[in-house]
Specification:
This protein is an alpha+beta fold. It has helices at about 1-10, 70-85, 130-145; strands spanning about 15-20, 25, 30-40, 50-60, 90-95, 105-110, 110-115, 115-125.
Length: about 160
Amino acid sequence: MAALLGFLTDHKDRPLVFFYEGRPVLPGYHVTEVKAGRFDALDCGGNPESWSEIFVQLWDVNEDRTHMPAGRYAAIIRKVTEHVGLNEPAKLTFEVSDGVRPMQLYRAALPRLTDGAVHVELAPRPASCKPRDRWLEEEKSAKACCGPSAGRQPCCG
């Protein structure tokens, strides 16, 4: 989230355009709600999990206006994080609906500057198994460290 806010602040006067399902949000989109919270849970392996998350609700409607400036969006998010006191890195989730279809959950890619606007691609947020994800990360790290490679020093015991 910090990378997104930093980028938006650096390009505060440029239009902010979110893309999802292969198309841009309409120019009149609204940030209808921003929620922040801290969550404590048990994953499917019985392991305790804790995280902070910000949910940004985008209402994808067309009104007589242009896309929101990036700086305005960044100011909205900063105001919420200050109000709720989120100091640590928070997971950022987008809830998007056109007011007819149910809201869908998305995660944001890093922003990029394209055609004079800030573009942020939203991808569907899949479910995951945290114990499996941790195991896969450990396997990937072990292979990167211990796998055969010319000139690499062994790091495994």
